[in-house]
Design goal:
The structure holds two protein chains of two kinds. Chain A contains nine helices and no strands. Chain A is mainly α. Chain A starts with 17 loop residues before the first helix and ends with a helix. By secondary structure, chain B is of the alpha/beta class. Chain B has one domain: 3-Layer(aba) Sandwich (Protocatechuate 4,5-dioxygenase, Chain B). In chain B, a hairpin with a 2-residue loop joins β9 and β10. The radius of gyration of chain B is 17 Å and the shape is globular.
Chain lengths: ~120, ~280
């Protein structure tokens, strides 16, 4: 059960709190396993089976198989762990940022540079 | 007794590891970042610290979410780096300083900071990269180390005021250590950045510059903000500034700014560097 606590709303932002940590445990645990090259290879061999081995629910599995970061966050994923999954597919933080904001990678990078000029 | 020579706060973006491995220090993207370091190299060569206490956060190398201490102190003879999953080079191990580790553990618990002690501990990029940046081009790091890990990953995080007090307790522990060693305190992470959500790419230059300034003159300024306030102001990962604040606390009393640098962006991050000398 979620805590039902009143939460601070910050647009476009999910705070990784107890509710998220509970919801995302299996997903984050699978991503933690990607610290090992052997596990990364096993995942790539059969992604579905690897998700099942870690007990991901349908929402989490779908998010992982479609590689949709916002869906993984909604399913309780934590950014640092999801980065390990992204790494398997050669996605860097600008790829991940671009996907989440619906921008092209070039536009996302340009926006970062712009933030330094203001 | 041991002497604290100063503190250095520095960004720890993983991407820096690749830049070092590929010798990109003078590449136009990286130059404004790496050019911040030579004045600090000169200072370190002058003050010659023997030991570095490194205050950082782990990103899922040593600690998983199965056990998440709020504050943890390393007490190992050496600390290994390991594969973090996305392919930056693994660095050779770092020497520990067991006497200081156990003195800090005793002293912190006596002061009612009930830390987790770790006789085995892997150290991730947040620990290794700052040491590589501060002592570059060496086969091994010249200082012995004590890692101090702060939870900035799974909420609730320790409040800013608590981190500052924790830092002060670390400072008192170092200064009461029966040793002739010279100790530098290093805080890693930040400054503003957000990796996740529709707000990914968020950066707040105005706040960062204010924070760096206040850290010297009025470090309690930032304690007016709750952790959720800090997320709103600096991004979900910008809260790593808690490691900077802890480090400032450890310097006890007044400090002078030795050198600072601030550059946007390194990866998705506003990179900051701030060296402080105890006055």
């Amino acid at each position: 059960m979620p805590s039902g606590k009143q939460k601070r709303v910050i647009p476009g932002t999910t705070i990784f709190d107890g509710d998220q940590a509970r919801k995302g445990y299996a997903l984050n645990k699978m991503c933690f396993s990607f610290n090992s090259a052997e596990n990364r290879a096993e995942f790539l061999k059969d992604q579905q089976a690897y998700c099942d081995k870690y007990g991901l629910n349908q929402q989490q599995k779908q998010a992982v198989l479609s590689l949709q970061v916002l869906d993984m966050l909604a399913a309780g994923g934590n950014a640092y762990y999801l980065a390990k999954l992204g790494g398997i597919f050669g996605l860097d933080m600008q790829d991940i940022g671009a996907q989440q904001t619906g921008m092209s990678k070039e536009a996302f990078k340009a926006r970062l540079v712009e933030a330094g000029k203001r | 007794m041991a002497k604290i020579v100063g503190g250095i706060n520095v960004t720890h973006v993983p991407y820096i590891g690749r830049a070092i491995a590929n010798n990109l220090q003078q590449d136009p993207y990286w130059k404004p970042f790496f050019d911040g370091f030579p004045p600090i190299h000169d200072w370190l060569a002058k003050v010659k610290p023997d030991v570095a206490v490194v205050i950082y956060n782990d990103h899922g190398l040593n600690f998983f979410l199965d056990k998440m201490p709020t504050f943890a102190v390393g007490a190992a003879p050496e600390y290994s780096n390991a594969d973090e999953g996305w392919g930056i080079p693994t660095l050779p191990p770092y020497r520990g300083e067991l006497d200081l580790s156990w003195h800090m553990i005793d002293s912190l618990v006596e002061e009612e900071f009930d830390i987790t002690s770790c006789q085995e501990m892997l150290v991730d990029h947040a620990f290794t990269l700052p040491l590589e940046l501060l002592w570059p081009n060496r086969k091994s790091c010249p200082v012995r180390t004590v890692p101090v890990c702060v939870n900035t990953v799974q909420f609730p995080l320790p409040k800013a005021a608590r981190c500052f007090k924790f830092g002060q307790a670390i400072g008192r522990a170092i200064e009461s250590w029966n040793s002739e060693a010279r100790v530098v305190v290093i805080g890693t992470g930040g400054l503003s950045h957000q990796l996740d959500g529709q707000r990914a790419g968020f950066i707040n230059k105005e706040f960062d510059l204010m924070f760096m300034d206040k850290l010297i003159t009025d470090p309690l300024w930032v304690t007016r903000y709750s952790v959720p306030d800090l997320v709103e102001l600096t991004g979900t990962q910008g809260v790593e500034l808690l490691n900077w604040l802890t480090t400032r606390g450890a310097l006890l009393g007044e400090v002078a700014k030795l050198h600072g640098n601030y550059h946007i962006p390194i990866s998705n991050t506003a990179s900051g560097l701030l060296a402080m000398e105890v006055v």
